[in-house]
Design brief:
Layout (H helix, E strand, L loop, with lengths): L2 H12 L6 H20 L9 H6 L2 H15 L4 H6 L10 H12 L8 H18 L11 H11 L11 E3 L6 H14 L6 H9 L2 E5 L2 H13 L5 E4 L13 E6 L24 H11 L1 E9 L4 H4 L1 H12 L10
Parallel strand pairs: 1-2, 1-4, 2-3, 4-5
Helix pairs in contact: 1-6, 1-7, 2-11, 4-6, 8-9
Length: 327
């Protein structure tokens, strides 16, 4: 049985706790991260240790784990981001213990990074295909992402400080596929430590509005060996928009015809509209470097409705950008 299948089998244990698929993968993310932290010596606060959890009986474990989540949410860095706003939805203490001991049987860090990443991607895909809500809306089919990445060729060493971003990153599908593509392109090249560090720590950026996919996206990138610069927040409507600009943007903005809060305020978009996709197009242009490139998945209306036509006319007739391909 492959790793994805083993992890997915734990889901059946939790179905009796009333969880949906998206709940399950989020709870599994907490536990997998603590398991990996134990194996690779990530500094974890006292009273949050994986090895200690293995020693406890079911009732002790439930209390210990709940307290651990409350401690971890206040940590800085990746720990605090992964465990942001955590809620333990595993109500049955015996089930929690069974899952922890099941995960313990998997030598997670003995697996290649490729296998770790593929296993987690497999869980995300199953969650999207079998769940009626939750992660599915944040999951772009991987064959589509792969085709876009193959065309855009997002090489983080294409030039100095080349930055790759997804402004609506969901579970980080575009970023992980882009990172895997770059890894294959560069695997036979002798990279300096500075180049390797840049790829791992500085090349990839993302922004996501919803905390659950943001958490899953962080974990997804972590399992692919990338310390991604992911931000939790609204790309279009926030007044505190990231000042970063990017060389390559790959994204699948959320579908829907109107933003719930109307026209963005304090944004110098040339065309005023409450259409989400059209505002994402304007935002992407603003955060794209000169001579940068972007690939965007859009519904038909983002090309044909009146406000969309105004935006494309503004961008193209003024020579601000070119449209290379429409698929």
């Amino acid at each position: 049985m492959n790793i994805t299948a083993k992890l997915w089998n734990f889901c059946h244990i939790l179905r009796h706790d009333g969880m949906d698929y998206a709940d399950y993968i989020e709870q599994l993310t907490y536990l997998l991260f603590l398991k990996m932290a134990d194996e690779i010596d990530i500094i974890i606060p006292e009273n949050c240790k994986w090895q200690q959890m293995l020693k406890l009986n079911s009732n002790e474990l439930a209390i210990y784990y709940e307290n651990a989540l409350n401690i971890l949410k206040n940590e800085n860095g990746l720990l605090g981001k992964i465990f942001q706003e955590p809620i333990s939805k595993i109500k049955n203490a015996d089930n929690l213990r069974r899952i922890i001991h099941g995960i313990e049987e998997i030598g997670w860090t003995k697996l290649d990074k490729d296998i770790q990443g593929e296993a987690f991607e497999g869980l995300l895909e199953k969650t999207a295909s079998e769940g009626k809500k939750g992660a599915g809306q944040f999951f772009t089919p991987r064959p589509l992402i792969q085709a876009i990445v193959n065309v855009t060729k997002p090489n983080p060493l294409e030039k100095r400080k080349f930055k790759i971003a997804d402004v609506a990153c969901g579970t980080s599908g575009f970023l992980t596929v882009a990172a895997d593509w770059a890894d294959k392109q560069l695997k036979n090249k002798k990279l300096t430590k500075a180049q390797s560090d840049y790829i791992r720590k500085e090349a990839y950026y993302g922004q996501e509005l919803v905390v659950r996919p943001y958490r899953l996206g962080l974990m997804n990138m972590f399992l692919h060996g990338i310390e991604a610069n992911l931000t939790l927040g609204d790309s279009v409507y926030s007044e505190n928009v990231t000042p970063e600009v990017f060389d390559c943007i790959l994204t699948n903005p959320p579908f829907g015809t109107r933003g719930s809060i109307g026209i963005p305020k304090k944004r110098n978009f040339p065309i005023e509209t409450s259409n989400i996709q059209i505002n994402f197009i304007q935002h992407i242009y603003q955060v794209l470097k000169p001579k940068g490139r972007a690939a965007i998945i859009l519904p038909d209306g983002a090309l044909s409705e009146n406000k969309a036509k105004e935006v494309w006319k503004h961008l193209i007739t003024k020579g601000l950008c070119n449209v290379h391909t429409i698929l």
